[in-house]
Amino acid sequence: MGDIVDFRRPKAPKKHKGNTLCRRGFHKWAVINKPFDVKQGRLVTSYRCERCGKEKNESV
Question: Which superkingdom, per the lineage (predicted)?
């Protein structure tokens, strides 16, 4: 009963904070794990963007 609900629309800079860089291809990649792929015989590095959550894999 004591919760205050804010019905105002969020401002544009707050709504899109950090998202515009990712849309233009400037992701902030962070390493998740480095498993060894047995079929390829290579080390596979998994990355996740800290801002938008997109993932990619890269084999070395």
Answer: Bacteria
